Amino acid sequence: xxxxxxxxxxxxxxxxxxxxxxxxxxxxxxxxxxxxxxxxxxxxxxxxxxxxxxxxxxxxxxxxxxxxxxxxxxxxxxxxxxxxxxxxxxxxxxxxxxxxxxxxxxxxxxxxxxxxxxxxxxxxxxxxxxxxxxxxxxxxxxxxxxxxxxxxxxxxxxxxxxxxxxxxxxxxxxxxxxxxxxxxxxxxxxxxxxxxxxxxxxxxxxxxxxxxxxxxxxxxxxxxxxxxxxxxxxxxxxxxxxxxxxxxxxxxxxxxxxxxxxxxxxxxxxxxxxxxxxxxxxxxxxxxxxxxxxxxxxxxxxxxxxxxxxxxxxxxxxxxxxxxxxxxxxxxxxxxxxxxxxxxxxxxxxxxxxxxxxxxxxxxxxxxxxxxxxxxxxxxxxxxxxxxxxxxxxxxxxxxxxxxxxxxxxxxxxxxxxxxxxxxxxxxxxxxxxxxxxxxxxxxxxxxxxxxxxxxxxxxxxxxxxxxxxxxxxxxxxxxxxxxxxxxxxxxxxxxxxxxxxxxxxxxxxx
Length: 511
Known about the structure:
Blueprint: E1 7-13, E2 17-23, E3 29-36, E4 48-49, H1 51-69, E5 75-82, E6 87-90, E7 100-101, H2 109-115, H3 118-124, H4 133-143, H5 145-150, E8 153-156, H6 157-166, E9 170-172, H7 173-176, E10 182-183, E11 188-189, H8 191-197, E12 206-208, E13 213-216, H9 219-224, E14 232-234, H10 239-246, E15 254-259, E16 263-269, E17 279-282, E18 289-295, H11 299-309, H12 320-327, E19 337-339, E20 357-359, H13 367-393, E21 399-403, H14 410-420, E22 424-426, H15 432-446, H16 456-459, E23 464-466, H17 473-490, H18 494-507
Parallel strand pairs: 1-5, 5-14, 9-12, 15-21, 21-22
Antiparallel strand pairs: 1-2, 2-3, 4-7, 6-8, 10-11, 13-14, 15-16, 16-18, 17-18, 19-20, 22-23
Helix pairs in contact: 1-6, 2-4, 4-8, 10-15, 11-13, 12-13, 13-14
């Protein structure tokens, strides 16, 4: 009797949940499961998680998905994708010394101002920004020096999960790179950047190319997951690049757009470039790179608006009534413009002190106007990102494939299409990062390059196409011309605002 085709397990350990899926040879989901992750915010701009929860949520999600597949004996490989830039410090027994610090944590603005430089940008590919772990590690070395002194291991999400799964302290080049201490040209840890961060090389994980084997699951772990025996753990990559793989974005000129908590647009390149127009990351294949633009607060701000101003029981997570009211408004929300820098400014300004601004209030405005202006503000930021990216690379972006929670909003995808005046392919599947990890696992089994597993047309999931509405072009052009002036006009006030906030916090009596 012929052997049944093998299955692979793909895990996306994101900011909000660990999601596991079992995929067949055609890339279809056989079974899936999810476990939530909670985030603590002990101070303004701080965002932390218990790394132990990364493991328990991942373990439980895998076990449930494997059980639901009905075919644990057919599972032949496992691969992880994950939230990027987040890191954990472990003691000699592998226990977290403190809560993990996340990618959106904004505590290190002073370290960014002091240590961020063109040299750091050139080496790491990362403009001075809130996301790279480099600056938050430098913050630890100044404010909690015992943590880095006593840490036996410092690593990214994949490194921690790989250690729990296989017993090996290792990660991929593409995952290590996001910490901001990596020399992208040589694909090695940079001694110069490690010194800035206050991290020792012996604390860091071993490096493995994306798509190679990180190790075999231990027999004990395999049994706890419901697997009959150890299977290989394939070196994964961050969730942004993995989503690009899941969307079939493997060639220049095609962009992936994750319209999620943050907004990330990415394109592939065979050439290393560094510029404020984007951040540069390791690509999914050796010798390639990913250029990404970033807005740290996209769906984050839309969700904030619904939670703060929506009616309980009506405008909850879906925000249906608020969204319908916003859709009925004319473009431009009757003169209300929002700069959505709730968690600092990233592409192309990279200003950790910047904060959100709403301009143009008058008496006719309602919460629906605010909500629409937020969605349009994200669209204007995307247009700014696209124009800068194309100008620096000299390559037009001919297609945009969008996914993430925002892709499920008909209003928002229409706004993105019209504000950018570009054709957009919308893919509502929320698990494209996991699908990209499944591509890597299958590629490992097939011994092919990740982009060649099934060809972009077969990898790309079903979706629908949107074309720009030409009747909105002139209006959005005029609004964009105003929108792009707001941050430069306000840039000078943000340092004083941050200093005033620190003064108030320092003067507040301890409770």
